[in-house]
Amino acid sequence: MKELSFTQLIEKPSNMDYKGAKDWILSCLDTLSGKLHYHGKHHTLDVLEITTELCGLEGIDEYHTRLLQTAALLHDIGFTKNNKDHEIIGCDMSREILPQFGYTDGEINIICGMIMATKIPQSPKTRFEEIICDADLDYLGRDDFYSIGDSLFKELVEYEVLDDVRAWNRIQVGFLEKHKYFTQTNIDRRQPVKQSYLDSLKELVATY
Q: pTM here?
């Protein structure tokens, strides 16, 4: 378990209007391109749900849960402007948007740290960042792994990044081999399932 920073330990609940911020962010996400078969609003809602679930299972207090939920809502907001460097764009948008809903500079810094931690390869430095990273890639160890993976492949095809299924499966093998879960909750409940997918994909790729 990673230590919380001094700022995070002494931060007191502010007048942040989480509901107002959530409503604004979800409305903004409605403008996402239809090409984003994976990084659409549905993905943000999934990450929000898993973030909330992990906060409960990992014993996170209500105040920091709100910060995590806000970061989950904003972690892909940058896609509304550009699909490149979307984490940096998302932080810029957060600094512009969140003060309107009562978030302090300290809270926004924590939120931006969580957004940046989700950039691949993930690089969490705090327990909160570990939670959002695990929520973002929770599907790697879930029953919907293949269907969600297919949506990402479809998105890559749309943006002319990739168009070969065999190449995609090789990429998936490499990604799963390098990926790790950080919270004990997901190490216990997702890692074994993720390993089974990796084993199956390696067998498939070996036939090429």
A: 0.92
